[in-house]
């Protein structure tokens, strides 16, 4: 979902792509996105290419330094969800693993399709996206899941005093990007709060905040760790509802690193090297949020990120323990990156029961996607104390 953030901070715009978790850049700005017209176009292209992506590492090659060149594609403009990759590059974890990693902007078709087609070796995505693509014929796997609990928030402007709880959204207008997933979540939240689950919709133009502020819509969706931080720092003030508080099961925001099944089959050593270096980057960021924020701001200079904002975002992640038990990870008794098989499966089952899945032809899919077939944490390293990173 969009934000109302000044341009020097970053995300102010999202574009319809595949689902609510797929953010892409648009005119230098970023927004949380959903299924829509671009999804149909991406699916058509994916259906044509899912069986012919080559032998795997088409984007990887050797550099003059002797390091293996690898590409990592952003899923939207740089933000704190990507921060572990920037840290791993800056602190030399990739080089120590024999890798020269090029962090590249997301393609118009999306990071998932780029990985599927061999245009990128790895990318940031989430298991909801992987499941959606899998029922349409893609062969993708999440190999590191950084986010361990939902960060989605559904909000109205605090000035709209008619909305104080989800059932108040009945009959109101949702600022949408066209996602069946979002519709299912909102309907369930309203009904679980005693409402009917009926609402109108309007397609967001340039910013959800602007759409709400103009009176065209009454509520929209954001991330607590990004747009929620912006609203806290700079306004506008919001009234927000969290999915777990209103009966949405499992983990809807399983953000992490994906690669193609062909890469896993043809070069498991590459996958292991990249995953473990990236894991170290996220673990360092979790233990050193302010320093990691500075690394992201410098490493993604073109994004013109505001350092105070990025630090606040990282500290929100730490305080909310969005990546897992912070103290245990810092002490080396737990690790960043484990797949939340049970939590994510509960959410995918919810989406399946709501009828959100369709195949490449747009026909309903009856079988629930299975997380154990879509993700693995076999390539992660054992945990280590943050002092040794």
Automatic annotation (TrEMBL):
<comment type="pathway">
    <text>Cofactor biosynthesis; thiamine diphosphate biosynthesis.</text>
</comment>
<dbReference type="Pfam" id="PF09084">
    <property type="entry name" value="NMT1"/>
</dbReference>
<keyword id="KW-0808">Transferase</keyword>
<dbReference type="GO" id="GO:0009228">
    <property type="term" value="P:thiamine biosynthetic process"/>
</dbReference>
<dbReference type="GO" id="GO:0046872">
    <property type="term" value="F:metal ion binding"/>
</dbReference>
<feature type="domain" description="SsuA/THI5-like">
    <location>
        <begin position="80"/>
        <end position="292"/>
    </location>
</feature>
<dbReference type="InterPro" id="IPR015168">
    <property type="entry name" value="SsuA/THI5"/>
</dbReference>
<dbReference type="GO" id="GO:0016740">
    <property type="term" value="F:transferase activity"/>
</dbReference>
<comment type="subunit">
    <text>Homodimer.</text>
</comment>
<protein>
    <recommendedName>
        <fullName>Thiamine pyrimidine synthase</fullName>
    </recommendedName>
</protein>
<dbReference type="InterPro" id="IPR027939">
    <property type="entry name" value="NMT1/THI5"/>
</dbReference>
<keyword id="KW-0663">Pyridoxal phosphate</keyword>
<keyword id="KW-0784">Thiamine biosynthesis</keyword>
<feature type="region of interest" description="Disordered">
    <location>
        <begin position="359"/>
        <end position="389"/>
    </location>
</feature>
<comment type="function">
    <text>Responsible for the formation of the pyrimidine heterocycle in the thiamine biosynthesis pathway. Catalyzes the formation of hydroxymethylpyrimidine phosphate (HMP-P) from histidine and pyridoxal phosphate (PLP). The protein uses PLP and the active site histidine to form HMP-P, generating an inactive enzyme. The enzyme can only undergo a single turnover, which suggests it is a suicide enzyme.</text>
</comment>
<comment type="similarity">
    <text>Belongs to the NMT1/THI5 family.</text>
</comment>
<keyword id="KW-0408">Iron</keyword>
<keyword id="KW-0479">Metal-binding</keyword>
